[in-house]
Amino acid sequence: MNIKIRKWVNKLFIVHCSLFISMALASCVDWDDHYDANTALIDSQQSTLWENIQANGELSQFASLLKKAGYDAILDASQTYTVWAPVNGSFDYDALSAMSTERLQKEFIENHIARNNYIASGAVSQRIFTLNEKLMHFDGSQNYSMQGISIAKTNLASGNGTIHTLNGMIPFMPNIYESLNNYDYPIDSICKYIHSFDEKKLNEYKSVKGPTLNGEITYLDSIFDEHNNLFSRFDTYINVEDSNYTMIAPTNEAWIKAKEIVSKYYKYVPSFEFMENTSTGTDKRKVNVTIKDVNYLQDSIVNLIMAANLFYNNNLYDNGKLKNLAQGQTLQCDSLISTIYSKIYTEDAARLFENAIRIDKSNGTLWVTDSLRMRSWTTWNPEIVVQGEMSSLQSSTVNVAGDPERIYVTPGTQNPEVTGKISNDMFAQIQPASSSTNPGVVYYLPSIRSTTYSIYLVTVPANIVNPKAVTKPYRFNVSMGYADEKGYNQDNDRKWTVESAFVADSAQIDTTYLGDFTFPIAYAGTGSYYPYIRINSAVTSRERANYDRTLRIDCLILRPKELDDYLKAHPDYKYDTGIY
User: Fold this and answer.
1) How high is the mean pLDDT of the chain?
2) Fold agreement (3-166, 173-271+308-373)
């Protein structure tokens, strides 16, 4: 037996085994269903797919592109494929030849090849995934087509698969992830950032296993899936064909401009002092914190924050209205919810798509915008709410009769004479240790940005549950602990003295403005190192009859100053407060 015959016999044995497996797994048609099993093999079956394509004069342009993309070797091997090969002159050969090898593979070659054998016989209506994971439609009875492109010649048999010639190329329909390039629009800044998380992972299910060597499985044919860590972090799988997403893609100009603005909220210093309050609150321990690379930290966090709210799952909530939103049309919806569950209400949601260009993709829509029209507080500088009962952020208490109590006010138990609603249905009750002391509590403030906040304290009246309880106003001192622009700790005790608005005959869940405060540096992203706020009851012995010394704290609200100003000018404005 000569080498050529031996090579063919070996291939034929592997092909028949492969075909048997393919029938079991994919229900593909075997050649025995199309040809009489007793007839001699036709000549083309004695050659590989590559050999038959190369020998076909109508496919010389396709063959040239296969060779450039490295698919001559793949189609000459034992793995079984079906190839839908466009004939000469039915596609722009010069344009495809000018493509990079990687792009040619993804957008053209793999768009026309599928694993397993797919025969045109009788009535056919199949949905087939090509090598680039695109879902194609293979249809017909006497006249067949692939994804709407008519087939010129069917069932050109090869030793390792089948060839159908096409009267044109199958258009490549990229998904959102595949569109993150600079081919048509100048969006390479956001593209470069997202692709920086790319990696390839072996798909063990799709790969063909070989022998085990030294205790490790080898693979005769290794299939790798594209993976990106941002997909799971943002819960946005824009590379999956059967999903439906909207992505806002800022141009380079929009990205750079927004980054200059966002960076102001994330100013870091190489080292800063963190004051660790003890459980008793009577002494404090200073901790020196060092940031290895300030510029890297800022750049990483700013990029992450800017990209986080660019993605929306069109199959969830009111996001479905994005499917039919036409370019130039004003979005009408109650709210949009991003894949990281940020809620953006009507007015701000509509702004996101103003003057943007809509581009439909195989798994959703890409909106290219020349400006990230996001309010700072909906994305990179949100309002911060610290629940009073959150013991993990109660860093210390002083002059307190035991631990602060976490009081539940379940629905239906609140005194109907008390107006307002307690967030999270809980508040902290902090009672004085004796009749002659004032209680105090310190709260750490998480995720602080380098910006100015308007700070509010929400307190609860004594009669929140018991209508007979006597309500009195609160008076308290407020001070801040923070690091200045050089990283040195500042602890301004008794900086403010404020009073609540409670009166005996009109109790309410009250929001008291404490004042504006500017944090010189950002803490978000540095770990569990936070600035803090100290709240002490400030009632003298002569004032006990007029003020309540027991502190009942629902929550603290740190509202960005620009949001606070906007609310004063637009009292009906609706935004995601984070308070429930």
Assistant:
1) 87
2) yes
What DSSP string runs through 273-285?
A: EEEEE-SSSS-EE
Name the architecture of domain 173-271+308-373. Answer: Roll (2.30)
> What predicted TM-score, i.e. pTM, was given to this entire model?
0.80
Per-position DSSP letters for 441-494, written without gaps between them: EEEE-TT--SSEEEEEEEE--TTSS-TTSPP---EEEEEEEEE-TTS-EEEEEE
Distance of CA 314 to CAs 218, 322, 346, 372, Å? 41, 6, 16, 20
Residue 427: which region, alpha, beta or left (left: phi > 0; alpha: psi -120 to 50)? Answer: beta
Instruction: Tell me which of 319-328, 357-366, 398-407 is least confident.
Output: 398-407
Each domain of the chain, given as residue ranges in start order, spans 3-166, 173-271+308-373, 384-569
Neighbours of 64 (CB within 10 A): 16
Instruction: Find all residues with CB under 8 Å of 295, minimum gap 6, and list them.
Output: none
Q: How far apart are CA 15 and CA 28, in angstroms?
A: 14
DSSP state of 392: G
Q: Which two tokens stand for residue 97?
A: 């030849």
Amino acid code (one letter) for 72 = D
Give the per-residue pLDDT at 502: 53
Percent of the chain exceeding pLDDT 70 equals 88
384-569 homologous superfamily:
Galactose-binding domain-like (2.60.120.260)
364, two tokens: 């959703």
- Looking at the DSSP assignment, which residues form a beta bridge with residue 350? none
Q: CATH fold of 3-166, please?
A: FAS1 domain (2.30.180)
Q: What tens digit of pLDDT does each residue of 395-440 get?
A: 888 888 888 899 999 888 999 989 889 999 999 999 999 988 999 9
What secondary structure letter does DSSP report for 108? I
